[in-house]
Each structure stands twice: as C-alpha cells, then as structure tokens.
Amino acid sequence: MTGKVRVEVEGRRLALTNLGKVLYPSASFTKAEVIDYYTRIAPVLLPHLRGRPLTVKRYPDGVDGQFFFEKNVPGHTPAWVRTVTLPASGSTKNRETIDFAVVDDLATLVYYANLAALEIHVPMWRVTERGDPLPPDTLVFDLDPGAPATIVECCEVALLLREALEADGHEGVPKTSGMKGMQVYVPWDRDEDTSAYARALARRMEREHTFVTSVMAKRERPGKVFIDWSQNNPAKTTVAPYSLRAGGAPTVSTPLSWEEVDACGDPGQLVFTARDVLDRVQRCGDLFRASAA
Questions:
Q1: CB–CB of 176/168 below 8 Å?
Q2: Higher pLDDT residue, 134 or 293?
Q3: For residue 229, with 0-12 CB atoms within 10 Å meaning exposed, 13-18 middle and 19 or more buried, which class applies?
Q4: Judging by beta carbons within 10 Å of its beta carbon (0-12, 13-18, 19+), is residue 34 exposed, middle or buried?
Q5: Terminus-to-terminus CA distance in the chain, angstroms?
Q6: 252 beta partners
Q7: Judging by DSSP bridges, how do beta strands 97-101 and 83-87 pair with one another?
Q8: Could you give the CA distance from residue 206 to residue 232 in angstroms, rounded to a whole number?
Q9: Domains, the chain, ordered by start
Q10: β-bridge mates for residue 244, sequence order
C-alpha cells in the first residue's frame, strides 16, 4: 500500500502514507503495524508524554536505513499539534530556540507514528499550559551493561538502587530500555537538585560495589554496569516507557515489576516486542503508573 489513507482521529484529519512499507525488515513489521501499536498503547503511553517536550528518532527508510533525531517540529506540522518554544540549550545548529511538539493526545501520537518516528524520547520535566518549563518531576538512573555484563547484572544493580532509594524515602520504578539495558525512575517532588542527588548516589554505589561504575569512559565499563546519572540534565532526554526501539525486532521500552527484576536470570526474559507489551498491558495495566502523576 503506497498511497494515502485519510483517517479521522479524535476529530483530527490525517493522511497516512506508505502503510505497507516494512520498517523492521527482520520482523516484516510495517509502518501500518507501527501506527497500530502506538494507537493501541496510547491509553498507557500518553500519561507519560503529556506536558513533556518531544524528541523523536525518525527512520523513514526503516531501521536498516538512515535515521535522524528531531526536536524542532517539521514545517508541515498541523496547526492543531501543540507546540512550545523553549531555549535551545546545547543546540548543534546554533539555534536560540526550538519549537517542540508536546504529545498530549492520540492524534498527535498518530501523526508522529506516520512520520516513522519509531522512538519517542522525553525529558524529566514538563511544561505548564502556557509552555513554561517546570522543575523536574522525575529522576532517572540509566543502567548500561558493559560486555560481558548484561541486563541480568543491571537487574542486580537496580535492586541495590531500590534499597538505597527506599532508605532515602523514594520509590523506584523499573523498565527495560528496549535494547540492552534498563532504567530506574523516581517520582520527584523535592526541592533538591535531581542531578546532584543522582550523581551522589551513583558514586556511592560505585564505591560500595566493584561491578558498578559511574564513569562514562568506555575503558571503565567492561564487565560492569554503568549508572548514567547525567540523564537528569534538563537538556537531556530518555526513551519513554512504551516507546518502540529501532533494533532488529520491534522491541519496546517495557515497564517491569520488581518481582520480574528480582527473578531475572537470563537476558531473554526481559525482551518484549510490541505484541508482547500489548498483551502485558491487557493483563497487568500500566506498571509504570507510579511515575505518571
């Protein structure tokens, strides 16, 4: 199917294109299936996107083709897509401001899925109705295994982080990255700087456990789990829960229960595809709901 299909989504009219294009060749997963996944997962995904400036990773020719990150809304973006203009901190294109989209509704989500925006990334903070940035409402620890370590070792570190967080009065919420690692999110309502807190805890974990590093340098990471605390920089984003990832298969950044984290003994246990995640949500609801407030 190569022509346009006109649809109406919650009163908004969209023209969907190239629905038969295969975006994940190894899995024969088409653009139509990408749009279908995002449409069906929207009830649990949208609460985690609302109010957060959007960055997407677009793959117009599929996961084996060229890709690009996109922050600034495309010129052809419909007027009904909510946008906010924010300072372009760290812009590589010497912009002073960027017009970000904010995915508050299903129509906007479908619009981006139709652009082959396979991966959805958002910051740890939201904007007001007027578009003014708010303080972070979430903190994240990104756990990245250095071979031969795997997500199994990430789970061990996540459990240690959970204990440390609970001792400080925080609740950790785990999810897979959808690739080789995982994240632990922390709902945040304190005045304390999230980046400073995350850095201090990551460094403490490094001192206490020989298989943990808080240093980004590749030479420090073989066989260890890197706790990346730097994602709490306001200029950075992390892959959203329920986002697809652009690997060989349509895997998803998947919320987990702590029981699953504790029971992980094989990396394959925590690999979930779009179909798997839709089934999980039907059975379990949104395991990430604690961080959506």
A1: no
A2: 134
A3: buried
A4: buried
A5: 40
A6: 244
A7: antiparallel
A8: 18
A9: 4-122 (3.90.920.10), 138-291 (3.30.70.3300)
A10: 252
Q: Which of 181, 220, 186, 191 has its CA nearest to residue 203?
A: 220
- By CB atoms closer than 10 A (0-12, 13-18, 19+), residue 108 is buried
Ramachandran angles phi, psi of 12, nearest 5°: -105, 140
How long, in residues, is the chain? Answer: 293
Helix, strand or coil, per DSSP, at residue 261: helix
* DSSP at 219: G
Residue type, 137: D
179-188, 233-242, 248-257, 282-291: the lowest-pLDDT one: 282-291
> In angstroms, rounded to a whole number, what is the distance separating the alpha carbons of residues 233 and 94?
19
Best CA proximity match to 209, nearest among 156, 251, 247:
156
- The 10s digit of each residue's pLDDT in 151-176 is 999 999 999 999 999 999 999 999 99
**Residue from 190, 196, 186, 189 nearest 166 by CA:** 186
**What residue spans of 228-271 are helical by DSSP H?**
258-263
Please tell me the distance from the alpha carbon of residue 144 to that of residue 148, in angstroms, as a whole number. 12
Proportion of the chain in helix, strand, coil states, percent, rounded to 5: 30, 25, 40
Q: Evaluate whether 251 touches 241 at the Cβ level (below 8 Å).
A: no
Cα–Cα distance, 3 to 219 (Å, whole number): 50
Chain centroid to CA 54: how far? Answer: 11
Tell me the residue type at 209: H
CA distances from 289 to 43, 120, 133, 246, 293 (A): 11, 18, 22, 24, 7
